[in-house]
Amino acid sequence: MKKIAIYPGSFDPPTNGHIDIVERGLTIFDKIIVAVLINPSKKSLFTTQERIDMIHESLAQFSTNIEVESFNGLLVDFASIKNAGAILRGMRAVSDFEYEFQLALMNRKLNNEIQSVFLMTGLRWSFISSSIVKEAASFGADISDMVPSAVYKKLKEKFDLKS
Asked: Which domains does the chain have, with CATH numbers?
């Protein structure tokens, strides 16, 4: 039986930290489903489809081992539908731990057959978040080494950045 994990997030935009988690997660799981959260109450820079497309392009070399889909509702319900036995989460710092710990306990309460697996983001990406990347890009900063090239191209279009 395949080991399948769900890697959920808003991915607005996907960063090299996100890609790092997927790449390293594939050393543990046979398949990772990158699950882009649809959250109408959150103002996103990119549409859900744009985020899905950027993730697909950024992870093209792993196309046989990943899927990218959007979802709404309870994560554990989505994981059950997809026959995933784990939820994969990345943590950058101790500050992420409390929130992730609460989510993991709630998910376990809702469905104790789905495990939470945490990977520390690679050290070189530990300071990066989608929010920080968007803010820096909005001021014209060079964020080209913080995001995959497909994402950088879309950020350049959104913020009219110079190469």
From this structure: 4-127 (3.40.50.620)
